[in-house]
Automatic annotation (TrEMBL):
Protein name: Multidrug resistance-associated protein 4
Domain of life where this protein originates: Eukaryota
Catalyzed reactions: cholate(in) + glutathione(in) + ATP + H2O = cholate(out) + glutathione(out) + ADP + phosphate + H(+); leukotriene B4(in) + ATP + H2O = leukotriene B4(out) + ADP + phosphate + H(+); urate(in) + ATP + H2O = urate(out) + ADP + phosphate + H(+); 17beta-estradiol 17-O-(beta-D-glucuronate)(in) + ATP + H2O = 17beta-estradiol 17-O-(beta-D-glucuronate)(out) + ADP + phosphate + H(+)
Residue span(s) of domain ABC transporter: 411-634, 1046-1279
Uppermost EC category: translocase
InterPro entries: AAA+_ATPase, ABC1_TM_dom, ABC1_TM_sf, ABC_transporter-like_ATP-bd, ABC_transporter-like_CS, ABC_transporter_C-like, ABCC4_TMD1, ABCC4_TMD2
One Pfam family matching this protein: ABC_tran
Transmembrane helix recorded as keyword: yes
Amino acid sequence: MDPLWKKAKDNPSASANLLSKIFFCWLNPLFSIGYKRKLEEDDMYKVLPEDASDKLGEELQWYWNREVQQAEKDLCPPRLAKVLVQCYWRSYALIGIYIFIEEVIKVIQPLLLGKIIEYFESSDPTNTAAVYEAYSYAGGFSLLTVVLAVLHHLYFYHVQRAGMKIRVAMCHMIYQKALCLNSKAFAKTTTGQIVNLLSNDVNKFDEVTLYLHFLWIGPLQAAIVIFLLMYAIGPSCLAGMAIFFILMPVQTMFGQLFSSLRAETAVLTDDRIRTMNDVISGIRVIKMYGWEKPFAALVDEVRRMEISKIMKSSFLRGLNMASFFVANKIIVFITVCVYVLTGNQLSASRVFMAVSLYGAVRLTITLFFPFAIEKISESLISIRRIQNFLLLDEVAPQHLGLPVAEKDCMVKIQDLICYWDKMLEAPTLQNVSFTVRPEQLLVVIGPVGAGKSSLLSAILGELSQESGVVKVKGQLTYASQLPWILPGTIRSNILFGKELNPQKYDRVLRACALKRDMDLLQGGDLAIVGDKGANLSGGQKARVSLARAVYQDADIYLLDDPLSAVDAEVGRHLFEECICGLLRKKPRILVTHQIQYLKAADQIVVLKQGQMMARGTYSELQSSGLDFTTLLKEEEGQEGERQGATPFPGTVSHFPHTHSDNAMSSMSSLSSSLYSLTDGAEPLTMAVQPMEEESRSVGNVGLRLYVKYFKAGANFLVLLVLILLNALAHITFVLQDWWLACWASEQKHINVTEHLNGSFPRQLDLDLYLGVYAGLTASSVVFGFLRSLVFFNVLVSSAQTLHNSMFDAILRTPVHFFNINPIGRILNRFSKDIGYLDSLLPWTFVDFIQVFLQVIGVIAVAAVIIPWILIPVAPLLAVFLFLRCYFLQTSRDIKRLESTTRSPVFSHLSSSLQGLSTIRAFKVQQRFQQMFDGYQDLHSEAWFLFLTTSRWFAVRLDGICSIFVTITAFGCLYLGDGLEPGAVGLALSYSMTLTGMFQWGVRQSAEIENMMTSVERVVEYAELESEAPWETDKQPPHDWPEAGSITFDRVNFSYSASERLVLKNLTVGFTSREKVGIVGRTGAGKSSLISALFRLAEPEGRITIDGFLTSEIGLHTLRQKMSIIPQDPVLFTGTMRKNLDPFRQHTDEDLWNALQEVQMKAVVEDLPNKLETMLTESGSNFSVGQRQLVCLARAILRKNHILIIDEATANVDPRTDSLIQKTIRDKFQECTVLTIAHRLNTIIDSDRILVLDAGRIQEYDEPYVLLQNQEGLFYQMVQQTGRAEATSLLYAAKQVYMNKKRVTDMHCAKDICAVFETSL
């Protein structure tokens, strides 16, 4: 909650001098630190003030608001693209000056090259003037190369920063919007989609700014080059340019095809990641149900479609790259053919001048210009998506309640009608009216799905009203039904941005029964809680959430079922000390299922199906005899018994140890004098489970990994063919130019000899030269294309193989893995890392290999022509290797910092979206926005370094290249006695291409290394240890387990080898058809007993079911033969049918019958497509209670002989609760049923009760027998529920005992008769 922004160092670029800015020297200190040790967050520099998130965001927001108002006036939709242009055009236009100068230089260089070659053609050593002239040309040539290098990187640095600014501003706006979305908007968007906007769509701005200027530079440059070519080789240049202009639309077409494929792929990727999210969130349940296969099939199907699209787009990419690679060859070929065939004679100076001029425009026209068009079309799609998001409905601006006197605050509701979804005929709420004044407690009750939570949403303004009045005077605060915990400390969760006032804080902790828990947790209230409060039990989360509301000290309290997550004792403590204690002066609205508290209410509202059935005090309602009394009727008989009716919330806890076993047990709150919690027991298993740090692999990526990566995509033979193709493509590539040089030199010789002899002119054998030339050109084209396509094919299939093996490994790994790794981290491997493997890595690899081979070609050519060049090349190579190693040390850390600082931005967004209603109720949007900006700035610091360090490196690399060019240029002149002009032309024009290309190749190689860490991370997950096999040879009979008897024999159990035992030496037997209740305090090992039975981790000792050792059977065989109703009801995104029966084993009739049994038939029939209705993200269109009923229906369908219930009667009103109990008694009469209970009345009628404490068995017998032992743990637990409750529990236990005794007595009598008769 309270991120401690570290004092970052001031940014040196602000105060650097001109030279330092040009060569990025101000980064030197950072590099020397990075070379010595690993860079940490404190080493990063502060964001420049003009890059700060809040400033940028506010600025863009101002333009956007202005546009929205203007659009309302003009009655047209507002346009985000226009806003971006208005906001950024000035600063962006200025950067164009750099690129303009750079492109002019690129055109001047070939002219100087031509002059140098001309000197060789008319070489006359005696003419000193000509020699000096040649040297001055060479000097100019070299100088321009240096200037080019510098300008190029300044331009890119500035445009990338411009892109960063737009991205940051956009993110700020998206987050600000997300905080204001209303329920209608959430029907149109999902959390995943918003995260996607923030992770993918805004990145388009980083890319589009790079190329935008080329839209005008491209055509301009082309015009100048045509003009110069006309001067050099006359009209035949038009033939070559024509090819350029044919290539452009072709590439643009490729680009459009490509982006349409991208769009299709993106939809499938979203789909796959959503399914993955479901699978990982519900992994415990999937494992216990043995449902891995249908889910694997689901992901597999989406992934197959995604890969086929990716394959297509990769082939397009391959064609595009190859056409780029061979374009130059074809153009020069056509130009030369036309030039020669129109009767001109080749001369080296002209040919190579033309080649270089083509080279100068080649990049701009065939790459950057189409890129600009492609990126613009892509970013327009993104802008449209963001624009649609920014135009979604917002909640009505919240009446920031004026501070009112305490006596004036109130909530008044009159004839309220609300809809969540207009499609459904029935309104969510109708004709609700009431008023709550200070010191009044209004209790809202009603069956599951009655609209109780919706009522609170309406008061909060989350649910817009159709008609009626909601009047709120005073400040609201709210405790939600599913407690929302932010990552951070427990204290920060309770303070929630308020100042710490120790006395008040202490009072709140006491009132919310948290004092005891704080003492037990390591680190007390400064203990760190993970994602979604993962390491707290359900009860603790509920109480932290309540404490947060109480600490806010608002005027009006809305409490959504805070009592359901805790056991009776704590529940009563919360009710008396907190709701009717600390808060007694305030107006309070409490939603609850706990009927025993109704007498304390000032008024009661009864809701049913969104209608208010009754309103009044307890006595009024009792006398009116409304449906309310039937809610009560069930209670009367068990009046005492029901006080313990603590249903359990659907808290989503991912930590099995601390599965929301009732709050830290009643004693914790009242530390009752009976005995201390840790009496003789070991310290609680509540120790917070630390999240494992994400492993950041340090250092280089090994060669083994590359081998693995390639091996995953193809076999050895294919790889060999690939290597051959690459070699051939480049050899023909160089030979083609070489042949041209020979041809030109030969022509010169003929001219010279003719000149000397004056005899008849000798003709060159045109057919021979042209024929060979055409052959070489054709082969370089063919090999170029083949090489690209094969390469892409291999790499994409490798991505597919790796994804499959990773997914398989994830499905097969033990549950423990998911407890120590947060969902986000696992999902990141499936989204970001697999995304790299799919598209970016193959492209980068192919590109790198291409460039690398070209660079080798350049050096080889130069070395053949002037062998002396190899002498200076060696030290240059050494400098280069050192630079690369020096740079990568730092760059790798910065890249890592960039990705680690990126994740808080996303996790902050997703946790904000989960707790949206809470954030709004507490009116802390402003603070969350600031936190978001803080996280953004932290990421910008890393991103800024990432940009500048890569420029630092590139400038230095291009420096090395300019030295090489200079050496070549002067080398030719100095050592150039008797050099052919063709050879000089070849060497110089080749070395010219080195400048941009070399540093690009090196950066690509670094990129590959960085992206290989993604491969490494995928491989790491693909090699996770796996559970026992799903199927084994030992198959129990088909109808096993027929009897359903379970025995534990000396079982020890812990979730992983490194953790302490949670079950110790457990020996116990459950006989066939027995109903057993399992009780014990938090951390006693109740859930662990179930985990051991299901082998979620391998137990030591023997567990047998009907005589079969569970450790010998396949996991699926075992798990599919037991039904479980889990603690958190998990529904998956998909149809209702898929949720009930993923294997499609049952008929529709079966499904409807099961739904009928749990009284969900009516609800499902009301859905638009009945069983085929898609459930939204994890079934959020059902209330928690309804989800629980669906889970019960699953169990009914499975018809197994063993049923395990993990106290699943959470958030369920007493009617539904008794319905569940009744269904279980009727439908599962023939089954062995184990119930983990938090409320004794649900299990008091069991055949036997197992009492666990700290992983050991304390007692195991019939309930009535256990209650006779006054020293026993069970007796004490019953006493703690209160006198009335205890009496009724004792009475119920006695009834059961007596009934059983009667039955057994009768059996005995019958048996005696039988014996008597047989003996007769």
